[in-house]
Amino acid sequence: MPDISVTIGMQQAWLLPAMPVVAFLIISFFRKILPREGDFLAVIGMLGILLVTLFIIIDFQGFFHDGEFHPGEANVYAFDWVRISADNFLFLIEFSTYIDAISVVMLIAISIVGLMVAIYSTGYMQGEDRYGWYFAVLSLFVAAMLLLVTSGSLIWMYLAWEGVGLASYLLIGHYWDRQSAAEAAKKAFITTRIGDVGLLIGIILLWKATGSFDIQTIIAAATSGQIGETYLTVAMLALFAGAVGKSAQFPLHVWLPDAMEGPTPASALIHAATMVVAGVYLIARFSPVYEVVLVARDVILYTGLLTAFLAASMGLVTSDIKRVLAFSTISQLGFMFVALGVGAVGAAMFHVLTHAFFKALLFLGSGSVIHATGRQEVEYLGGLRRKQPVTAATFIIGSLALAGIPIFAGFWSKDEILHSVSSYASPFVYIVLAGTAVLTAIYTTRLVLLTFFGSPRDKSAFDHAHESPSSMTVPLLLLGLLATVSGFFVFDAVGKLFGFSGGIGYLVYLHHPHAFHIDWAFASVATVSSLTGVIIGWVYWHGGAERAIKARAWSPDLHALLVNRYYLDELYQGIINRVVLGLAGIVAWFDKKIVNETGVDGGAQLIGYFGYRLKFLQTGKIPNYALGIATGILVLSVMVLARA
Amino acid sequence: MLKRIPLPSQFDRIIIGGGITVGAIGVPLGIVLVTLVAFGVISAPEMVFFVAAIIVILGALGCVLLPNIVHAALSLTATLIGVAALYLLLMSEFLALVQVLVYGGGVVLLLLFGLMMTNAQDDPVVTDGSQKPFAFLLVSLLIGTFITLLLSGDWGNPTAHVVPFELFGERLFREFALPIIIVAVLLDVAITGALVNVHSTGSDLPEESE
Amino acid sequence: MIPIEYFLTLGAILFGLGLFGVLSRRSAILILMAVELMLAGVSINFIAFASYLDTDAFTGLIFALFVITVAAAEVGLALGIVLRLFRERRTSNVDEASDMRW
User: Fold this and answer.
1) CA-CA distance, A159 to A150, in Å (whole number)?
2) Residues in chain B closer than 8 A to A627 (CB atoms)
3) Domain residue ranges in chain C
4) In sequence order, which ranges of A8-76 are alpha helices (DSSP H)?
5) Model pLDDT for residues C47-69, shown as the tens digit of each residue
6) The overall pTM is greater than 0.80
7) By residue range, what is the domain housing residue B188?
8) What topology does CATH give the domain C4-89?
9) Alpha-carbon gap, residue A583 to B179, rounded angstroms
10) Is the pLDDT score of A2 beyond 70?
11) Mutate which: B145, B150, B152, vs A, most A CBs within 10 A
12) Per the domain annotation, does A496 fall within a domain?
């Protein structure tokens, strides 16, 4: 590769968050006077990010020896941000960036999907209110996300963590004149906040044990046994709590289906490809430490497993296409956490990459459908493949990738996960996960059949439908291409073609890079199960979906349970009403009665009372004052004479 | 009995009545004192002192206790004359002279004029918040303290010395020339101040509605 | 012949009576009279000290002279004030010369 990375390399990783921040500031301040409200600035920002990412990758590839990454200090850029030092005490917060293989995978996903979403949004959001503000917040989000994945300091990562939460809130609530959107934004923020508290506790615990906020320092200290095992387990579980919140795992998954109130391209970027994998990124980053506290890793494994299965079951009965995709995201994130739970960091990050591509594709495709018909529930859709051929074709590609059909990207990454699970975890885990994969195929097929095949259920929506403009279809096509071919990166030959030492196994690994071997038996079992799922889906939902309707009548309670999302929302609301508001009532009573009335008012009234009583000391009559003077003289003379 | 005496006016009756009262008190007192002197218990100057002291104290009591304002002014006069007698006992004739002239002839006269001009009422009987008990307590404490202290001190046994008048005059106008001039200015200022204060723009007499 | 303590005691008593008068009298003119009593008592003390103890430099005498002078001036001025008070309030009762609302 020619040496063009002279000026931009891993040390300039700070450019990555800096550029979209500038775009955000310019658009938000000047959008009224910029042409087209400044959306081109966001696109230019994304292009810049893609370019810098390429330079970083080129620089990154230069530091591989014998297939291992030895950067020395070249992948770190740091400066002191807060430094308080006394004799034996040092409190240091650095701004630092750290680039390694995990960051590189995330950067590829964020930059490509970000660019696609930005271009798509210029078509989708045309004519909407606050058009410029949308692009400003989009840039802000990308800035925070890039800061999150390149940060080498836990404090800056936490800052970025909150930043993506803020941008997510702003985007979910973009249509804030809709009550449901405002509520959904609030729900998202509060639910992730609960997780964030855990994350902060974890950061503080780790700082207390090691005295540093630097991630690599903490990992080195933890793996060398400097931190007590129970303490470290608690700290790592606290960090995982943050991941549970941000990545919508059980029990904090309730916000993601409601977050679909936001604009669809935002959902594609945030709630499919990037923000929700922040939790996966965190755990992957700390995977050497999780190897030391296997109890915490088992918690991750089982949480991911439960979430994957639960979400897939809920996605089976949802009628809103975006919400089906939301449940699918939750389920796939569960897959990633299961992979992390057995220590297969490479498989997890690979699935992050492929999932980013095909899930973003699916969301943008659904956005195209919504844009064309104005409807998102499947009751009003059907037979759209005749009206929107490009959308339908790319959507089907994405679904095939999601379902895990061979050739397409999802097959390779899901296969990697299932393979590591079968090698390192109990058979029970493998069976549940494989079952979830079958469920995935089923609900995906259902979604495709109900939306694009069969006869249209709502005439006006169907008549209104048309293919979307090229600003929307081009990203769909590009993402469709990536969803098809990105799976091949698992092969070592493909990796070498791009300048890496090998396939994904040589890029992201826990201890040693491993070459890729196809386990034909395994692969065929996986293929058969995915195809089974597709066939089941076709049997039940093709045409008029009579079999599905009969199945629903067979067990209405189960159906109600799934449609109501296992009544978890009601449970949480009940807890909030009883516990949180109850406690708040007590505190409010305390504040009102004791602090306000007794303390503040009481003190004032006491003074007023004494003032009133003492007021009568001033009679205004001269004889009284003369008596006072004479008394003073008496007292003074007694004092003086007593002393003498 | 008084009414049967053929006297031309009430005023004479008061004089006679007052005279009799004073005589009734003073004559026995005088006899007591003379006897005491004769027997050598107290010396003659001491007797004069006691007489003057009694006049002073009775006059002072009258001044602060009598409700009628004119009676109070007159007993003040009596006090100040008694004080002049005491100055004589202290061998300073000049000051006794000054005392009689200034106080007896000037100050009391001024007070009586002011009394007349302001139509001063008698000191009212105060029913609420009279300070008399507090004042009595306070004064008795204060004066009790003073007297205890001065009696417990050792003064030696000094005697009164006459102050030569010429020396007094010399000292007054030599060492104390500046204070004299300042006092002169002060008197000037006081008179001017009083005049300015009292000078009115219109009606200066009280309304006839009284 | 007359011990100095007699004069000093008398001066103290006179001062005390004057003070009592200042504190307990209601009419302004009566208060002025009581002030004169106080000044007289003080003068007796000064002259006693000058005559008995300070025979060479009889500062007490001179001081008493000044006291008499200033007292006279003060009475003149004070009467002017009482006159003004009387004109404004139609009374020389110091109890009623109060603007307070209670």
Assistant:
1) 12
2) 131, 134-135, 138
3) 4-89
4) 15-30, 39-61
5) 999 999 887 888 999 999 999 99
6) no
7) 164-201
8) Helix Hairpins (1.10.287)
9) 83
10) no
11) B145
12) yes
